[in-house]
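Q: Sequence in, structure out?
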Amino acid sequence: MPTNPTPALALPVGTTLDRYIMNRQYQFAYATGELSQLLRDIALAGKIIHREVNRAGLIDLTGGMGIENVQGEKQQKLDVIADIRFRRALTNGGEVCAIISEEEEGIILTGNNGGKYVVAIDPLDGSSNIDVNVSIGTIFSIYRRVTPTGTQPTLEDFMQGGHEQVAAGYILYGSSTILVYTTGHSVNGFTYDVSLGEFILSHPDIKSPADGQIYSCNEGNIDLFAEPVQAYLHNCRRQQLTARYIGSLVADFHRNLLKGGIYLYPPTKSNPDGKLRLLYECYPLAFIAERAGCLAVNETESILNIQPHSLHQRTPLYLGAPQMVKQLTVFVRQGMSAQRD
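A: Exactly. Output:
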């Protein structure tokens, strides 16, 4: 007898992001609904960017703007669009009083002085890769403001330090679009179901492997790295580890988070302070990494322990499986000891 297809067709869709957030409000330090709404606003902007990324080649959204942003980097069309989309979503949501973005020099005031949160965001990391269909992403960090509610937010609201983040996450636009975030408890991933227009829980309680076989680094710059980092990379090759480097921070981090690996962006002779931005790239990814069992350091200390002093502050970053990061720090310490001797 033929089997009845109805049960298979009626299988549960899964837990939506909205439902998950509502069910987990008890984990929030201030469970009055504002942070839940803020996360939904970010998810909405992510859906819009998903749409723009997927039709970029059809409506001439690829390529550069012909100008540089405040970082001195060539600005892509999608950089500008993503910055506008996230700024608009966070402003219209009403929960955010101020934003800092990779694309803007100073603090962006939303006019919502009654909002309780500030957001640091890289609207579209790796956007130059869109021209060749390589994964790109959004990185965000959320703080509860320290200035009085109702007043105009200031730089102080963003200079709290990595440990004071109340939530952080990223959205990866790749073969599928996935939103990963944490509020300081578990790390969870939600894959975007285009047919439903919903993010569905697909990666609950992510725990990263303690060790790995992947190292992610732009080895084209190896001659510019300090000798201890060069020695570590040579050791990776001797161990026949797998080199995987996409050139999109979110994509490289996401792969290593799930499979086990280390991401390296060392300082160079031309960038002695490193190149990645502390507030809206390194802090949020370090916050996620530590909650998933990884480590994030700048060679000598935890990324989350670094004291911020400017909006676009840069830092070296070594991020990933704890065993691999610890091995790297051994090479760095030995190098420092040899220099002293």
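The domain at 214-340 is CATH 3.40.190.80 (D-Maltodextrin-Binding Protein; domain 2).
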